[in-house]
Amino acid sequence: MMKKQKNDRFASFLDWLENGGNALDEEMQDALREEEPEAPGKQKREKKKKSSDKTADIAKKPRKAYADSWWYRLLAFAVAAALIWLLMEAVDRMPRFGAADTLMDSELTEFYVEHTKEETGAMNIVTGIILNYRGFDTLGETHVLFIAVCTVLLMLSIYGEQDEKKRLAQGALERYFEPHHDVILQSAARLLTPLILIFGLYIIANGHLSPGGGFSGGAVLGAGLILYQNAFEYRKIEKFFTYKTFKWVSVCSLLFYSLAKGYHFFTGANHLDSHISIGTPGNILSGGLLLPLNFVVGCVVACTMYALFTMFRKGEF
Amino acid sequence: MLEYLRQAVFAFLLLAGLFIQVTAVIGVNRFRFSVNRLHPAGMADTLGLLLMALAAVVYAGFSPVTLKILLIVALFWITSPVCSHLIARLVRETDEKHFEAEAKEWKP
Questions:
Q1: What is the average pLDDT score of chain A?
Q2: In angstroms, rounded to a whole number, what is the distance separating the alpha carbons of residues A172 and A243?
């Protein structure tokens, strides 16, 4: 029964194409047929040719001998044991958590602990440091994410613009072999996606009050989007998130970050009043620029995660 | 006396959870076929995690943190079986040749 299924799979895919599964035009179908695997008899002949090749034999033999020999396993065990010992030793030599003499010789630490709350309005000192004292560094980090997405987009667009039809056909092929209408996954996603998205927003919004912030919250948001997209295909998520959305959200977020941080640095360096009040530390609406900056960073990270996921599949965004 | 009992329950739960996890690790490494491997892997995520979480609850006593720990268990119980299901489905759909051969080879 299995064999029959396997032989029928590509045929059923073609049937699906002809029944207008994704409203493909004929040229796209032709492009797909070109990708069709060759007849099984031909493949077998090619395989025989390959196995008679001397180079293939030479490449195959020592690899097998390597992995099966006792000294290879012993060496692997020794390397693993040495690595574990090294890491455990390093952990053992770290200062104890909460010990009295931990980093107390650093003036910077003392300064941060004493002044972060009153200068930035952040209860979470880490957020105060990365978005206020070292805001410029975080600006670079956020741009690195955006540049990474751009690079991946450049590298993965194999077919380019001149072969749009082939690209779309590849996308259709990829979509066909994905789980469709998987009830188990869909019901799990229906239950979990809202919870995940709300949790991500909570982490972002409480970034200046509790551990968390734009990066971790954005990662959670991106994971929620990926789960939703996996369960409900492209068409449902395309209603609110497309390539255009990604472009606009990312670019606007980065622009806002640059402008806000630039204004903050400009006024701060010239001893001007920036008119951004810090508020009472501990409230949700406090910390001046921290909350909007956290949201902006969260947007960029979520978009990056989702875009990286979708781009590694062929076809449309 | 009650304290000792609590410690005993804690130790039992922790050891049981550890046993499940160790079994799962051995199973994942010993089985040869991916669908067979799913069985111990799924066990670690559900039963092993539940026992460990209950051990943590018993050790720390009942508090608001208990609810959080149980929430973690609930989330894992929703997600882990779905993951196993997806992996099994993928194996079935893409690795049919292997699936068939291993099914013949497998002896109860």
A1: 76
A2: 17
Q: Is the pLDDT of residue A220 over 70?
A: yes
Specify whether the CB–CB gap between A289 and A276 falls below 8 A.
Answer: yes
A222: nearest Cα among A135, A308, A93: A308
Q: How far is CA A169 from CA A6, A172, A313, B90, in A?
A: 21, 5, 12, 22
The C-alpha R_g of chain B, in whole angstroms, comes to 18
Top residue of A1, A2, A228 to mutate, by most chain B CBs within 10 Å, is: A2
Query: Across the strands, what pairs with A283?
Result: A281
ipTM score for this prediction: 0.76
Residue reference for tokens 């008679």 = A52
Task: Say if residues A216 and A302 touch (Cβ distance below 8 Å).
Answer: no
Q: Which residues of B17-28 are buried (b: 16+ CB within 10 A; e: fewer)?
A: beebbeebeebb
Output the CA angle A238-A243-A246, nearest 5 degrees. 105
> Taking the domains of chain B in order of start, what are their residue ranges?
2-105
pLDDT the model gives residue A50:
46
Domain boundaries, chain A: 124-311
Q: Indicate the residue of B82, B96, B99 with minimum beta-carbon distance to A184.
A: B82
Which chain A residues are within 8 Å of B96, Cβ to Cβ? 2-3, 5-6
Q: Which residues of B touch A191 (CB under 8 A)?
A: 78
Q: What percent of chain A has pLDDT over 70?
A: 68
Distance CA A241, CA A248 (A): 11
- Asked whether the beta carbons of residue A3 and residue B100 sit closer than 8 angstroms, the reply is yes
Unique residue bearing structure tokens 């004493």: A114
**pLDDT for res A51:** 45
Task: Give the orientation angle of helix B64-94 with respect to helix B49-60, to 10 degrees.
Answer: 170
What is the b/e burial string over B91-106, where b = at least 16 CB atoms within 10 angstroms of the residue's CB?
A: beeeebeebeebeeee
Instruction: Return phi, psi of residue A281, to 5°.
Output: -60, 135
